[in-house]
Amino acid sequence: MAKKRSGARREAERAIRKNPKLFVILLVIFLIVAVVFGVAVWYLHTHEEPENPGGGSPGVGDIVTDELAIYFIDVGNKYTGDSIYIRCGTTDILIDAGSQQASAKAVGDFVESHSEDKMLDYVIATHADQDHIAGFVGTAAEKGIFERFKVKTVIDFPRTNKDLKTASGNDTLYGKYVAARDAEVEGGAVHYTALDCWKEEKGAKRSYALNEEGTVTMNVLYNYYYENKAADENNYSVCLLFSQGETHYLFTGDLEEKGEEYLVQNNPLPHVKLFKAGHHGSPTSSTEALLRVIQPEYVCVCCCAGSTEYTDTPANTFPSQAMIDRIAPYTKNIFVTALSDESKSSGYAPFNGTITVLSDGTNFSIAGSNNSTVLKETAWFAANRVWPRDGK
Ligand SMILES: [Zn+2]
């Protein structure tokens, strides 16, 4: 073999000596091959698809733009409540601060770590129930949201059936909320009710542009119960539609069946990309009259799944079987923040955890901080709920 190879080399040397141009041609061919190979390696390296973007399906890693970010905050305790933080560029919005006064820390820390300027441009309190306003008040040990952050504009509910004082003359939680809100107003915040917004009175507006281009807007919808007495506090909820071009996101607080019916009658509602399940996934909200119109693609439920805080009837605990039955024909993309877990001393575990939605209007992603499994594929669902046969 060695003899053969050295023989071949001699042959090649002889050929090159005979024809020196051959050496130049071979060198050029070698260089071309090397350059093409190098470019190919670089291209493959820089255009490689990540194996599992975002670690879940669908995942945060799917898109690079986060023009609009919506976070359904897992407040980290066994009590159901709403708290949704929304960021559009440098505009920060907080819808509600549930579930308990002690949740002020979790909600406040979340805002602190996600807001660029540590300032809330808009705070929306949907209605006067504890699981929506408690965190605005806080505790002796934990500053409430109003005390902790500078707020520019507060938009809240025009009506409530609650009193400011208890029979013994102490402030109720609602009374404390009003005091904390008014202190914020003293400090320079502007305060409107949702009815002021709807009527565009006192400088309030129905629609607020959230970015300079005006491509993302927060729109205050009309709720009949802004102006009329409701037997159920939930029906006083402030209702909001966020729009990003043709992509829409609907938030109705704890609006109940009758409120949803009036909402559909009074507002030209579009199909929505995402709907925050009405009243934590209660059997009495997210009714067919509303769903038929909005046809949601994604549904986020802020609740502690399976908790008996509000009912002992297993099918009616949040997220209720009745709500699932009604949502199922439209989408299987249901996500839930927290889970009741009796094996833990806290009685709580994250379900999907804090749910993060990112969208640039075209590309959309949703992922949970704990996992991104849709409700119907979870162990909790298998043990506690059924998926209707006509579901997606
Ligand atoms: Zn509630």
- Poorly predicted tracts of residues: 48-57
| CATH architecture tag of the largest domain | 4-Layer Sandwich
Query: Per the principal axes of the C-alpha atoms, what is the gross shape?
Result: elongated
Radius of gyration: 29 Å
Biggest sheet overview: 8 strands, mixed
Helix content: 25-40%
Following the backbone from N to C, one meets helices and strands in this order, namely: HHEEEHEHHEHEHEEEEHEHEHEEEEH
Total count of strands: 16
CATH topology of the largest domain: Metallo-beta-lactamase, Chain A
By DSSP (H or I, 4+ residues per run), the number of helices equals 11
CATH superfamily caption of the largest domain: Ribonuclease Z/Hydroxyacylglutathione hydrolase-like
Identify the bound ligands. zinc ion
Percent of residues in beta strands? 15-25%
CATH class of the largest domain reads: Alpha Beta
Average pLDDT: 90
Q: How far apart are the termini? A: 69 Å
Lateral arrangement of strands in the main beta sheet? 6-5-4-3-2-1-15-16
* Secondary structural class: alpha/beta
Number of domains: 2
